[in-house]
Design a protein that fits this description.
By secondary structure, the protein is an alpha/beta fold. The protein is 23% helix and 29% strand. Helix 3 packs across helix 4 and helix 3 crosses helix 8.
Amino acid sequence: MKAIVISGKGKINLTDVPDIVEQANQVIFSPKFIGICGSDLHYLADGSVGQSVIREPLIPGHEVSGVIDKSITVNGKKISKGTKITVHPATFGEKQEKIANYPEIWPNGRYLGSAQYLPHTQGGMVERMSVRPDQIRVVPNNVSLKAAALAEPLSVGLHAITLAGGVRDKDVLVSGAGPIGLLAAGGAVTLGAKSVTISDVLDAPLERANKLGVQKAINVTNKKIPSNRFDVILECSGAAPAISTSFKAAALGATIIQVGMMIDKNISVNISSINGKELTYKGSFRFKDEIDQALQILSKNPDIQTVVTQVFKAKDYEKAFAVAKDPKQSAKVLIEM
């Protein structure tokens, strides 16, 4: 069977890999649409993501939708052959009693399409793959397979909203209009935020945000974000200047959730207002079980699927990755297997 494989820095091919062998307690399905994530782009550009270094061929992709290859029963419910599904990509690690409710940060967890451990955890850019039954999520009838590939990245934004204590009737700022920022903004709109403002340094992503129902889109290169204004801030850029701006933009008693990953080095950030405003600043990592909520939101708000800007056939993988790394051209790029 065919798979897209990254074997090191700048090395990617569509190649033959061994077919799936049926195993007990595993579900075989056929991936149809797979999102290209920032981590996939880093694996190709750098051969690594943080401390995760490619040491053997890696099939990327953890944003996966597909169809079940044959009828199965999960938790007493029959899932028929051909049923649309998406996948929770995590295998949670070693349970820690002190953080029992936060399995997403338990040590030694695994994630689809990750080079963190050996053997690497292979991802979804392949014709057939297997996962545990508990990873399977049935897609609502009114959600397409293309839209269902957004469930995983949407879950990242929803997890941040969960950590913030929700957004209903709150003024929300989303800092950074990349795919995660756009999906977080769409999620906040759907979940009843009083207002949603999104910011970026580029016009193209902000134009995409307008399709999601946000009240205001701000290009910070020519307009300032209001100070002391927002109850919840989802900082999705990971950029030091944006983090500093978030503290200034926060209202009294606001919560700032750091969603965007930061480079592991000393940076200059102004958080001086954290005391006088009694702000809460909290990190967010992947997600817990918000993928179920993500599917409900995709079913309720079809505008969110506009975050998908391009779909490329697997044979056009080189162009797909090239377009995905250019935010002026794209938001979320999908591979169709």
